[in-house]
Fold:
Amino acid sequence: MTVEWHKFMMHPNELNWTDQHLAAVEVDGRKLGIARWQDQLYGFQQKCPHASADMVSGYVDAMGNVVCPLHRYKFCLKNGRNVSGEGYYLRTYAIEEREDGWYIGLPPKSMFKWI
Ligand code: FES
Structure:
């Protein structure tokens, strides 16, 4: 899959983290969520694929799943799998630390709504 890398911050301290270690960012006009779990950062779509709740208002459980605040569906931060079994899928995005800052890999904009 084609990915375009976007620099979105110089340092994680720039983000407005919730007390659940989640933060909202806007990158290339797209609203995304960032989770900090076990010293790693994970990117994902901010809207829940079930009924569009704000995933950044949820929390990350002990297994590394982001939990939706509305109906508590759970999604694996690493691959977006709906581990609570309702059959949805949360888009997730790779994050890389580079010498000049932090980057997130997004599909090209023309493909964003399909992937
Ligand atoms: S809106 Fe997220 S689980 Fe229903």
Q: What stands out?
A: The first strand starts at residue 4 and ends at 9.
